[in-house]
Specification:
Elements lengths: L1 E2 L5 E4 L2 E5 L37 E8 L3 H11 L2 H5 L4 E8 L3 H9 L5 E4 L1 H9 L4 E10 L5 E5 L14 E4 L4 H12 L8 E4 L4 H6 L5 E4 L1 H10 L2 E5 L6 E9 H6 L1 H20 L1 H12 L4 H8 L2 E5 L3 H16 L17 H5 L5
Parallel strand pairs: 3-5, 4-5, 4-6, 9-10, 9-11
Antiparallel strand pairs: 1-5, 2-3, 6-13, 7-13, 7-14, 8-11, 8-12
């Protein structure tokens, strides 16, 4: 887990909050999942927007992978968005950079995190596996290429068909794993026909080192690998019109602080709007933040249809596909589980998010 350190003062009357980043070790602990009634259409819980959240200091701990949400919060601070939406609260933020969604789920289960942004697979496995998580909103959807399958530049492999029997790497249990499987299914190939290994989240490094003969990478990673001449793309034509980022909450935190949870969704909605309204300014900020050319990453972010929404019909359909895929591949027993066990639109409705 990497540290990200920023500071922010929110001052209204005598309410002062600070935004800081720090890191903690993640225990490999599961928490018993608290039974919670979910609803895809109605605000069914007894929530009080004038809760104790306005009377006490509350620390909101948020995690992401690959920097995006952490960057969003920095950008939201600079634009004054966080100050606007949390002006009535005494809040602090801790921002964490994790390697993968499964690790984030474990940290939420251990009581170390309150919110996260995850890809499709861990967003579904967390709620149904007893981690005490739930999907409370969608942060955007993909309408273009789902990424790429790449191979070392000198591998001699030119198609997915030619990877049969070869060592193929991905981060097992993550959205990358699920997307790689979709590439192969589209080509009529079972993952049983390749030697699938857990290469972790740094598949690019494994490709450069020749440790794997093919692997799934994002479009930004594919562009970097291609430009440096260390890998080639052999497939990038899979288009999945589905949610790309899921906003995850600790059920316990959301139920205790429904007003803060809704305010957080409103703030993220406003930050995404600021990014869409002036992508050039966001690109410049991203460059300064990384201290290097962030063009591939900015292209990737702006390639999504950025809109914070409820868990809508498109998202529910994708969740059901994932539940079926998990069971079919013997990864998680999803018997008796439905999409309603995964998501809760209570807080999205409080935030008046669109469907």
């Amino acid at each position: 887990m990497k540290k990200r350190i920023i500071s922010l003062l929110l001052v209204v009357v005598l309410v002062i909050g600070s935004l800081t980043g720090c890191g903690k070790n993640t225990d490999q602990v599961k928490a018993e999942q608290k039974e919670t009634e979910t609803s895809g259409t109605e605000v069914s819980k007894d929530v009080n927007q004038e809760s104790d959240s306005k009377k006490e200091h509350v620390t909101i701990r948020i995690a992401d992978q690959a920097v995006n949400m952490i960057l969003y919060f920095h950008y939201g601070e600079e634009k004054g968005i966080l100050q606007e939406y949390f002006k009535d609260y005494d809040v602090g933020f801790e921002l964490y950079d994790f390697a993968s969604g499964p690790a984030v789920n474990e940290a939420i289960a251990a009581g170390q995190l309150d919110f996260s942004v995850e890809g499709n697979l861990p967003s579904v496995t967390g709620p149904i596996s007893g981690y005490g998580t739930e999907v409370i909103a969608i942060l955007g959807k993909s309408t273009s290429s789902a990424g790429a399958i790449a191979t070392p530049v000198d591998s001699g492999i030119n198609s997915l068909e030619e990877t049969k029997g070869k060592t193929v790497g991905t981060a097992i249990g993550t959205a990358y794993h699920y997307t790689l499987a979709r590439f192969y299914e589209e080509a009529g190939i079972s993952l049983d026909e390749v030697n699938l290994i857990n290469a972790g989240t740094d598949v690019s490094t494994a490709l450069r080192a020749g440790e794997i003969q093919a692997g799934y990478v994002t479009l930004a990673q594919a562009e970097i690998l291609t430009n440096e001449g260390s890998a080639r793309v052999i497939s990038d034509e899979l288009i999945i019109t589905a949610p790309v980022h899921y906003f995850i909450a600790s059920r316990e935190f959301a139920e205790k602080h429904p007003d803060l949870t809704a305010a957080l969704l409103k703030a993220v909605q406003a930050i995404e709007k600021a990014i869409k309204d002036d992508p050039e300014a966001f690109g410049d900020y991203y460059n300064k933040y990384l201290g290097t050319d962030a063009t591939p990453y900015v292209k990737s972010v702006l390639g999504y249809d950025l809109e914070v929404t409820t868990v809508n019909e498109l998202a529910i359909s994708e969740i059901e596909k994932i539940l079926s895929w998990l069971k079919k591949n013997g990864l998680v027993d999803t018997t008796g589980k439905t999409a309603e066990d995964v998501y809760d639109n209570t807080y999205a409705k409080l935030a008046n998010l669109p469907d």
